[in-house]
Amino acid sequence: MKHKTKTLIFPIFLPMQGCKERCIYCDQNLITSDKGINYAEQLKLAKSFLQAHRGTQRQVAFYGGTFTGLEQGKRDELIGELRDYLDAEASFRISTHPLFINEEIISWCKESRIKTVELGIQDFDGEVLRASGRNYTTEEAITACRLVKEAGLELGVQLMPGLPGARSGKEGEKQAETAERHQTSFDCGGLATAGYKSAVCSWSVQQPPVQVAKGKRPYRNEHPDFGDSVSDSQLTTHNSQLVNQAVVASLQPHFLRLYPVIVIRGTVLHQMWLRGEYQPLSLEEAVHQCADWQQVCDEAQVKVIKMGLPSQMDQSSIVAGPWHPAFGQLVQAELLVRSLEQEYSSVSIIKLDKKQWALIMANNKMYLEVLQKRLPGCRLLPPTADSAHAKRQRQV
Predict the structure, then answer these.
(1) Nearest 5°: CA angle at 46, between 45 and 51?
(2) Which of 126, 154, 292, 293 is at a distance of 20 to 30 A from 255, taking alpha carbons?
(3) H-state helical runs in 62-208
(4) What proportion of the chain, given as a percentage, has pLDDT over 70?
């Protein structure tokens, strides 16, 4: 089988640039550990990257802001600095806001050698979007995704499990009211034209509603906590998660990023949390939701390329929420334990390979405890790297 060539990526972060407002949860300067970015130096390094890897699939990526929200002159300037260094295997990747995508912008992207567009959707559930002050609808988010895919560009979707409004009942209503009080109007910069709005409306009328395939969903996690209890907050977030999973399975983006919401010091969400108006997911809930996502995406053939915010993020800026330096590894351990539960019963003897053993023993043996709780009495056989090692293990 021929393996797809991996694309090399050189990232340039543009924290908050092009954004017409600050989202209630966001501070890109802290997330990207921005200590003052020298853009001239970054562009110089990008040129060296493009030259050093000629003949290889590679991209220069503009992250951290709303790239298509920048004035076109600024966009052209950034792209123009690097265009002469592109060959047939090189292109650009951008991240942007779904309201800053229309047919004119798409045409500009194609002309500018932009191959990949990552959309910061954050959530497809209309109630969550309203509660989080995102100022667009489910239909607008879906339309932006469709415009990217139908143009032949690679579509990436970013989602944030645990946003305000994902919890139902009085807590969700309170979060929605608070978010709306602190949110300013969104200036779409002329992108939300009558034609664009018409396209949104026509999609909602002509397309059938996204539904969960019978017998395929939900991937209901039988162990919604690391232990064996079901928390009220997990039950109330479940329906919102299903909405998002159904939409992603229907749209089939080329890849997905999952960033469970954390509370960053100085944001509106921080103030909501201090007043008791917002409660983030626990680490356990976030791990389980992302594991559910991985199972859904495996079936839908959607690649998950990132789970959790960067490990190099300034930890002093995090006041609450499910941040962990090895978050993705926890998700992989959760998925492994789920598979072992399907294969083995309690008091079984379970033989693990090296990779599986490392996952179970990592992070202070967190998932060894989880496995022993879910399969009481089970015994693990470590990988046998050599006969001497195996003999020593038998003697222990």
Answers:
(1) 95
(2) 126
(3) 72-83, 103-111, 126-131, 138-150, 169-182, 194-206
(4) 76
Helix or strand or coil: residue 63? strand
Closest CA to 165 of 240, 221, 217: 240
Reported as a pLDDT band with limits 50, 70 and 90, residue 34 is: low
CATH of the domain at 177: 3.20.20.70
Residues 111, 244 within the same domain:
yes
pLDDT tens by residue, 279-296: 999 999 999 999 999 999
Q: What is the pLDDT of residues 43-75, one digit of tens each?
A: 999 999 999 999 999 999 999 889 999 999 999
Residue 321 CA to residue 316 CA, distance in Å, equals 13
Residues 6+ apart with CB under 8 A from 214: none
Question: What's the number of CA atoms in the CB half-sphere (13 Å) around residue 109?
Answer: 30
Mark which of 304, 324, 344 sits at the end of a domain: 324
CB 119 within 8 Å of CB 98: yes
pTM here is 0.78
Report phi then psi at 13, rounded to 5: -95, 130
Gap between the Cα atoms of 241 and 238, Å rounded: 5
pLDDT of residue 201: 29
Range of the domain at 167: 8-324
Q: Please report the DSSP string for 73-107 in residue order.
A: HHHHHHHHHHHTT--TTEEEEEEE-GGG--HHHHH
Amino acid letter, 23 = C
Distance between CA atoms of residues 354 and 303, nearest Å: 24
Q: Which two tokens stand for residue 84?
A: 């002469």
User: Crossing angle, helix 103-111 and helix 138-150, to 10 degrees?
Assistant: 30
Question: Could you give the 3-state DSSP secondary structure of residue 268?
Answer: helix
Mean pLDDT, the chain, rounded, equals: 81
Last residue of a domain, one of 324, 354, 382: 324
